[in-house]
Amino acid sequence: MTRIYTPAELDAWRGQLVAAYDPKQPCITVCGGTGCRVYGSEKVWNTFRNEIARQSASATLNFEVKVTGCHGFCEKGPLVVIRPQGIFYTRVKVEDVPEIVAETIMGGGVIERLLYTDPQSGEKLEHEHDVPFYKHQQRLILDLNGELDPSSIEEYVARGGYASLAKALTAMSPEQVITEVKASGLRGRGGAGFPTGVKWETCRKQPGDVKYVICNADEGDPGAYMDRSIMEGNPHRVLEGMTIGAYAIGAHQGYVYVRNEYPLAVKHLRQAIAQAEEVGLLGKNILGSGFDFDVRIKLGSGAFVCGEETALIASIEGRIGEPRPRPPYPAESGVWGKPTNINNVKSWASVPLIIGQGADWYANIGTPTSKGTMIFSVVGKINNTGLVEVPMGISLRKLIFDIGGGIPGGRAFKAAQIGGPSGGCIPAEHLDTPIDYESLGALGAIVGSGGLVVADEGTCMVDFARYFMAFTQEESCGKCVPCRVGTKSMLTVLERICQGRGQPGDVEYLERLGQEVKRTSLC
Predict the structure, then answer these.
(1) What is the CA angle 235-239-241, rounded to 5?
(2) Distance, CA of 144 to CA of 293 (rounded, Å)
(3) CA-to-CA dists, residue 59 to 25, 53, 81, 106, 501, angstroms
(4) Which string of b and e fits 101-130 if b means at least 16 CB within 10 Å?
(5) 202 CB contacts (<8 Å, ≥6 apart)?
(6) Is the dihedral of CA 76, 81, 86, 89 positive or negative?
(7) What is the spatial distance between Cα 268 and Cα 284, in angstroms, rounded to a whole number?
(8) Residue 108 to residues 91, 168, 174, 186: CA-CA distances in angstroms?
């Protein structure tokens, strides 16, 4: 693998990679994300390779079989896309492979039974870009997930990877990088929505030479898997964003805190770190700039509370993952008492786009106060389950009906739970509410990290609340009394109501206690 010492050498390497790439080269991309692997995509892509090799004995088949990250449309996996035509096949089985090779690859035809059928119109759609699930999205962070081999740094570099890092290290001062991120309007995608550039600036201004940056990949909300899919499908973009952020803040050590239940994400991250170190895009004197930066992976044990910053820091330090009172905030005193900047996977992955395309470009996406795109994992009572990347400010109606395909069986939409267990439910009367920080906050909900669970008319909302409260109570670290005792008391009342033994005043008690738990708990 080529070692890169300067931006000019990076550009030259990219030129060689692009020159060797033929955009007309036929390619079969098979989803290799965790969701599709569960459905058997690993056997599918191995069968494709064997079948093409077998049929090549009698006819020349110059076809590449590429395993990509998660395509996002998990409901229809395993997914196969024939490129460059963009022919889109769903729920492909091993026994379908010989027919695809013979009919589509060799014969140029289309197998109708494998095409996507729109649940509302009943129409069969041949091409990926015509499928409403993809057509109405605006994919910035997930743009390469269905095309890129996540184990190949060469493919990432050929698609412009690490150009933003080169720009930041050679053409921008740390202060200019922070100014650009502030001007973009990027807000933390982990839940709180705090302005990212302001967070970076606060950390940079702290005294001392030792600082840290952390990627919070401890994704624990029920039904949420956005961060996992980004790390599985495009790990180099996360590393590039972290390196740019570390340069801006003045940090030379970074951590990716990821739960041990994400083995494929961990595997691809480790490969990406090793590759970046080998070519000189991590480590000492990156691109001849004099800037040093290393990244380590810290595996969490699946504790939901470790998604909270101070609990995460405690876990990195080898202590029990429990939150502590703030202030001081991590930007002032984080890992081993040193200034530490923590951002979510989606936040770090947005940084190369902002530096590469410019703050104005990013700020023109979304709303005046909520910029850019947001990735949601849309699950529950909905036709099209999967990962959806949309501009901030999109209505819940468009997200659920235009992209999500509506509710199965023609049933009525009842509510959407958004923002994880600490979020809120948006009922049908607010379907046209824009999805942004302020609009959802006014309804008592939060954007959160992007989990969205859809409920239909058959869903009991008390049981819905009981489920999430049971999760919250089970995951309570027990450090503070309001959470340890309060969530247990709330769960007891909800279970009693679900058993038909509700009492007058129960709802008022839950509302009052819920507010107190929220106000007084550490996390």
Answers:
(1) 115
(2) 25
(3) 17, 10, 22, 9, 72
(4) beebbeeeebeeebbbebbeeeeebebbee
(5) 329, 331, 332
(6) negative
(7) 22
(8) 20, 46, 53, 45
Using CA atoms in the order 360, 361, 366, 370, what is the torsion angle rounded to 10 degrees? -40
Q: How far apart are CA 63 and CA 480, in angstroms?
A: 59
pLDDT digits (tens, 9 = 90+) for 307-360: 889 999 999 999 998 999 889 999 999 999 999 999 999 999 999 999 999 999
pLDDT of amino acid 57: 64
Amino acid making up residue 95? E
Copy the structure tokens of residue 384.
Answer: 């099209």
**pTM exceeds 0.85, yes or no:** yes
The two tokens of residue 14 are 């990219």
**Bridge partners (DSSP) listed for residue 455:** 415
CA atoms within a 13 Å half-sphere pointing along the CA-CB vector of 201: 14
pLDDT digits (tens, 9 = 90+) for 230-263: 999 999 999 999 999 999 999 999 999 999 999 9
What residues contact 301, with CB distance under 8 A and at least 6 apart? 259, 260
Q: How many residues does the chain have?
A: 523
Helix (H), strand (E) at residue 309: helix 309-316
Reported confidence tier of residue 449, pLDDT bands at 50, 70, 90: confident
Give the whole-angstrom CA distance, residue 358 versus residue 520.
41
State the Cα–Cα distance between residues 316 and 352, nearest whole angstrom.
26
Token representation of residue 346: 């989606």
Nearest Cα neighbor of 217 from 231, 204, 201 is: 231
Q: How far apart are CA 352 and CA 190, in angstroms?
A: 18
Residues 6+ apart with CB under 8 A from 293: 243, 246, 247, 251, 252, 253, 254, 282, 283, 286
- List beta partners, residue 395: 434
Q: What angle do CA 411, 416, 422 make, to 5 degrees?
A: 150
Backbone angles phi, psi at 76, to 5 degrees: -110, 15
In 3D space, the residue among 114, 178, 106 whose CA is nearest the CA of residue 354 turns out to be 178
Alpha carbons 194 and 450: distance in angstroms, whole number: 15
The DSSP-derived string for 363-429 is HTSB-SSSBSEEEEEEEES-SS-EEEEEETT-BHHIIIIIIS---GGGPPEEEEEESSTTSEEEEGG
Distance of alpha carbon 286 from alpha carbon 35, whole angstroms: 36
User: Do residues 394 and 210 touch, judged by C-beta distance below 8 A?
Assistant: no
Beta bridge pairs of residue 255: 214, 296
What are residue 414's phi and psi, to 5 degrees? -110, -50
- CB-count burial class (<10 Å; 0-12, 13-18, 19+) for 242: buried
Angular region, 361: left φ>0, alpha ψ -120 to 50, beta rest? alpha
Please identify which residue in the block is written with the tokens 């990679």: 17
